[in-house]
Amino acid sequence: MTEDKKTVAQKRRYRVVDVQSAKQIADAWLEQIDLVNVVDFGLPEVDDRYLSR
Q: What are the CA-CA distances from residue 31 to residues 2, 11, 46 (Å)?
C-alpha cells in the first residue's frame, strides 16, 4: 500500500488497525487471565437490540 493510501491508524502505527487485530489482542489478554471461551465477540449494536431481552 502506498504511503498516501494508508489509513490514519497505519500511518500512526497503531496496534489496533481493524476488527481482526482488536480481537487478536483481546483474545491474548483473555487467555492471560484465564477467561478464554467465556466471552464471545459480536456486533454490540445487534447484541444490544436483539439478544438482551
A: 35, 29, 25
DSSP string, 28-47: HHHHHTT-TTT-----HHHI
Tens-digit pLDDT profile for the chain (53 aa)? 566 788 888 899 998 888 788 889 999 999 999 988 887 777 766 655 665 54
- Name the residue type at position 42: G
pTM greater than the 0.85 cutoff: no
Nearest Cα neighbor of 17 from 25, 8, 9 is: 9
Domain boundaries, the chain: 3-51
